[in-house]
Amino acid sequence: MLNFSDVEARSGEKATDNIEMRVKPSDKVRIARAAELTGVKLATFVRASASREAERVLREHQTTALSERDSRTLLEALDNPPPPTKAARDAVRDYRSRIANAG
């Protein structure tokens, strides 16, 4: 079941900002009916629904899913890293030189 506990009540943060939007009358009727069926005010329903969707999108974009094969390849590379390339060795040497001369 949907959880419509107030987001700001859970976080202790007071709601002070507004979001304004235009919706089609049919969308408003449908959303208002859903809010009514769940026993919450329209604003609470919209706020909680938008907040849940925002969390889902953020979580989706912060997570990388690997196939089983890719996961094994990554773990193997971490356990047995290849030797550094010449470019990597040069980059480390240049970095150390800049750090040593920075003082």
Structural class: mainly alpha
Tell me how many strands there are. 0
What's the domain count?
2
Helix content: 55-70%
The parts where pLDDT drops under 50 for at least 5 residues are: none
What does the radius of gyration come to?
26 Å
Beta strand %:
under 5%
Main sheet attributes: strand count, strand direction, barrel closure? none
Q: What gross morphology would you assign?
A: elongated
**Overall pLDDT level:** 90
Given the structure, what is the number of helices?
A: 5
CA distance, first residue to last residue: 61 Å
Q: Could you give the order of the helices and strands? A: HHHHH
In short:
With 103 residues, this protein is mainly alpha-helical. It is 66% helix and 0% strand.
